[in-house]
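LOG
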Amino acid sequence: MAEAVGRSWRSNLERALFESALRVDLTGGVERLAEALAAGSRDADPKRITRLAKAFGARGRAAERRLASLAHTLNLPLSMDPVVGKRQPVIRLDTRDDRVEWTDARYRVAWNTTIDELQAIVGN
């Protein structure tokens, strides 16, 4: 899911969002991920993100759950709804932070920040 640009490759929107959710620790944290998702959610294709998640296995599915949790909770226009079983472990929204402010029971994602804090950042 990258586009050829001369002799180089450039990630498309879906790949950039997915990789940011995959490696929150390298992309500036959950706040930057939320900003990026808010900026790109109208144009992103959720089916492309799902294909990427499948290709990356368990880590990819975790990234998809992070994006779905953010999009759903922050009322962003990205329709993602990965199937998450009740026996699947809860994952962290920010892999660097063990603090839990809220847990999204639908996608089983533990948020290290409050919903209000991220809504203020994305302007929702």
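LOG (cont.) second protein
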Amino acid sequence: MDLRDKLRNPFVQQYILEILIPLAGYFWFDWTIEIIALFYLIDQFASEFSFLRKLKSVAAYHQMSFSRHLIISAFSFVIFLLWKV
């Protein structure tokens, strides 16, 4: 697998953009560290929300209980978010 094939992977593209957007904001748009941290926090909330929506669909398809997974996921997200505060 050459470099071109690796760069076509959507996950690689997502990670590259998650790194380049804050760097571009810092160097060219005068973003502060607080704005960059807010960017990462909003990105994490969106990822968590998207994951839970997908999990709900999978649980509904397999006739599984979703509430237990929701509670565990939300609790662990809050714990990791507040870990160093």
